[in-house]
Description:
By secondary structure, this protein is of the alpha/beta class. The protein contains 19 helices and twelve strands. Strand 11 (about 535-540) and strand 12 form a beta hairpin. The two termini are about 60 Å apart.
Amino acid sequence: MKHILKSLRWYDYILVLVTIGCIVCQTYFEMELIGSGTIMLDMISNLATSKELWNQGFKMMGLAGIIVVSIIGASTLASYISSKAAKNLRREVFKKVNSFSETEINKFSTASLITRSTNDIAQVQRTLMTSLRMMITAPCMAFFAIRKITLTDMTLTGVSVGYLVIMLVILITLIVLVLPKFGLLQKRTDRLNLVTRENLKGVRVVRAYNAEKHQESKFDTANNELTSTSLFVGRTLSIMNPSLTLIMDMMTLTIYWVGAVLMSKGVVGVDYSVIATFGMFGMHVIMSFMFITLLFVMIPRGIVSLKRVNEILNQPLSIVDGEVDTSNAIGTIEFRNVSFAYPDAEEKVLEDITFKVGKGETVAFIGSTGSGKSTLINLIPRFYDCTSGQVLVDGVDVKAYNQQVLHDKIGYVPQKANLFSGDITSNMRMSKEDATIEDISKALEVAQCGFIEKLEDGYTQPVSQGGKNFSGGQKQRLSIARAIVKNPEIFIFDDSFSALDFKTDKALRSALKKHTKEATILIVAQRINTIKDADKIIVLDDGKMVGMGTHEELAKSNKVYKEIIASQTKKGGDK
Length: 575
């Protein structure tokens, strides 16, 4: 709740007070309108003149007008305040998720983060809007109605209180049954989103292996669990409205019956108009408790959603900014006895890694799958922090850097090429907002993106979500071009040439070397041809550094490197 309160400005609190004022006016004048109706009945019974009836009618119309204006004002303001709070909450969540490391993202899962950012915040918005109105309306209506009732007749008041007790027992029973299911409902929504997202992302694999039945089974399980919980909540709550309506009708009938008995006994102050008015006031008391019931249904669900949102906002960051916010552009990298293990993992992924990279050097990392290559270079931009040891960039521990300063030094191209919806130019300018067309053109030329010349719209060619309108090789080259546009002091290529044919790979690396003479380049690769011209090659095996040197040196003396070469030659059965 503190995040919602913090997001509101001083004038929003004034609007909240105005909303409360509108609601109080609405409920007060509704009771006054009922009282005016009683006066009208008395006037009719006493054969009042037409003028008197018209005057009373105009007074009632005035009261009705005030009520309508109050309702419109309260609804509009409640909608504005809740929408603004939800907007600010979404912004905070998006900003916090952007600061998450891989550790936090893996903890929540992508599907859950999406659900919390959309479904849960929407639920909080609905709860806030309803609460702003009902939380004031219900007690005000109950107060004004009960006040009118107690001033009328205590016998009839006792009838109303008896039915209220019955209604409260029913409500408490329903809430105790339903409340625990709200949290389960959101978790099962997360699970359904996860299964759906996995299926959509891997739809080609699913079809290739004829695994549709398997995926449908997973989906049906998650769907059935969510449906069963929703049905339980729905069926339980479906009892509520008929029960309250029945109680309201029974109370009205009882009031008329008791009132008739009192009239037959000649009790002073009890007549037709009093009984009719009391019945209406009694109905408003019941309605106020119906509103309270609605709050009891919505607020717990909103609280569950708010807790899930707060789990994101209150999540401690495993990677926090350091204090170094300026640095000389040098381009040196050093690993000092670096070890790394994933959170909650028993075994280390990397162990005792030590090496130096000088300015302008090209260093490559190679090893079998799972040897820790990608994990190692992910420690440099601090996607993870090393468990022990130090990673230094330009002589400064990366943990001491302000992350923005550190990331400004690096041009990073991940294993999976990520393009964003927009066009080619907007994707290039993600790394450098003020990049000129000449900068973009040169970067695309270096990255061997000649295919753009054949596109109908050229640099303004639309890019669909995830770049699905480009091939794997085209996406990799565009991702490499985006890093080149930035012109950083350090380039990190995490197996970023894997989708390129040998000819394009060679041409790209040659052009890159000429264009980035002063930059430090780190390359993770599986192919020997991609890395054999590197100044230094580091060989990893099972998380340990088992060799370092040039291609020629390692080819002569390093057993693991020799095995990799053999596996990629005709002699080894693979080219």
